[in-house]
Amino acid sequence: MDKKIISVSLKIIFQHTTKYYFISILFLLSVFPIDAQKGSMLYLENAETLSFDKESMDCQVLLGNVRFRQDNIYLYCDTAYFYDTKNTLHAFGNVRIRQGDTLNIYGKRLYYDGNNKLARVRGKVRMINKSLVLETDSLNYDRQNNKAYYNYGGKLSDKDNVLTSTQGIFFLNSKINVFRQNVRLQSPDLFLTTDSLKYNSNSKIVYFISPTNMKYQEKTKIYSERGWYNTQTETSQLLKNAFVEDAERKRLKGDSILYNKKKGIAEVFHRVEIRDSAQNMSIFGNYAYYNENTKSGLVKDSALMVDYSSKDTLYLHAKLLKTSEDSASKIIKGIGNVRFFRNDTQGRCDSLIYLSQDSVINMYSNPVLWSDNNQLSGDFIQIYQRNNTIDWVHVQKWAYAIVKEDSVHYNQLSGKDLKGYIRNGELYKIEVSQE
Question: Which residues contact 208 (CB under 8 A, 6 or more apart)?
C-alpha cells in the first residue's frame, strides 16, 4: 500500500511479530492523507503511536491524542481504528467532534463513515451548540444534511428551558428541532406535555403539532392541538380545540386564541365560549377579548349569555356583551338589541346590566317585560330575584302594565311607578303609584 507523509519528522522502529508491524511515532504527524473519495478525504493530523494489523493491513490502530480532520470538522479520541480503503473509523475514549466555533459533540465511542459523513456517537453523549446542550446516550450526526438525531431518549437544555423526549431531530442550519414521544418542556413558569412538537432554538418558540397540555405557574391551564408558544415573551396562538382556564375555573374556548400571559390578555375568534364554572354561566359569540388582570372582557358577533344557575335557564342575547368583576359582584352588560328569555319571563331593551351580588337585572331604553300573559313597560325596569327566580319587578317613569283577564278582556294600568309581584312564574299583584 502506497502512502505519502508530507513534512514529517519521526523515528521509526520496525518490530516484526507474528501478527503486527509496529511503528512508533515520536512527533506530530503534520498531514496523513488516506485514500478516499475526492471531496470526502479523511486526514490524520496527530497520534502518539500507530500499528497495522497483519491480517487486515487496511486497519490502522492509533493510540494517544488522536486527531483527524475532514473538511471543516475535527475528530478527537484516545484510540482509533482506521479502515483506509473504506474511509471509516472506530474511535474510543474521550471522543469529541468539533465543527467551527459553535458545535461540539462528546461521547465514549464513535463510528464515523467518511464517505457518507455520518457520525454515530454512543455513551454519555453531550452535544453543545452555542447555548444549547443536548444529553443522550446515543446520537447520530448526519453532516451531509447537517442534522443530528436520537431515538432512545434525550434532554435538551438552555438557560431558560429544559426539554426531554424519546426522539429528537436537530436541523442545525434552520435551528428547527423536532421532538416526538413523551415530550416534556419545563421553563421557569411553564410545564408542557405533548407527543410531538417543534422548537426553534433561535426564537425560543415552541410549535404544537399534536394535543398539548400546558400549566402556567401551577395556576393557568392551556390546551391546544395546534399552534405555538413563545417561551421568551409568553405569548401564544392556539389553533385547534383550544382553551385557557385560570385558577378560578374561568375557561376561554374558541377556534383560535391569541394569548399573552405576561399582560394577561386573550383574544378568541370563532365559536367562542367564556365559561365561568363558579357562577355556572357561559357567554358565547364569535369574538371575545378578556383581561385576566382586571377580570373584564367583551363578546360580540352573535353574543349570547346562558345562565345555568337555576333550573330555569336564562338566555340573554345582545350585539355586545361586557363582563367585569369587583370584590363583591360579577357584572354583565348587554348593549344593543338586548333580548332575554326564560320560562317564566321574557324581555327586550336597548341595554341591560346584571349584578350577580344582589341578583338584580336593570333594563334601560324602551324596556318591555313579559311574564305569563302580562306585559310591563316603562322608562326603566328593575328585576329582583330570589333563589334564582324572579321575586318582583320595579317599573319606574311612564310605567305601563297590560294584564290579561281572559281571551277577550285586558286590564291596563299606568303610573309613574309600578311594582309587580311574581309567584311561581305568575304576576299575582301589582302596585301602581301616581306620585
Answer: 194, 197, 224, 225, 226, 227, 228, 229, 238
Which distant-in-sequence residues (6+ apart) come within 8 Å of 349 by Cβ? 338, 363, 364, 365, 366, 367, 368, 381
Please check whether the domain covering 1-152 is classified as CATH 2.60.450.10: yes
How far is CA 407 from its chain centroid? 62
Domain positions in the chain are 1-152
B/e letters for 114-140, b = 16+ CB within 10 Å, e = fewer, are beebbbebbeebebebeebebbbebbb
- Cell 416526538: give the residue: 180
Separation of alpha carbons 17 and 39, rounded Å: 37
Does residue 141 have a pLDDT over 70?
A: yes
Question: Which H or E element spans position 111?
Answer: strand 103-113
User: How confident is the model over 311-365, as pLDDT tens digits?
Assistant: 788 899 999 999 998 777 789 999 999 999 988 789 999 999 988 777 889 999 9
CA distances for 386 relative to 119, 333, 355, angstroms: 76, 20, 13
Task: Enter the C-alpha cell of residue 220.
Answer: 393557568
DSSP code per residue over 211-260: -EEEEETTTEEEEESSEEEETTTTEEEE-SSEEEE-TT-EEEEESEEEEE
Distance CA 230, CA 9 (A): 57
Strands (E) in 356-388, as ranges, are 360-364, 368-371, 374-377, 380-386
User: b/e per residue, 70-102, with b = 16+ CB within 10 A?
Assistant: beebbbbbebbbbbbeebbbbbbbebbbbbeee
> What is the tens place of the pLDDT at every residue in 87-111?
999 999 999 999 988 899 999 999 9
- Tell me the whole-structure pTM to 2 decimals: 0.78
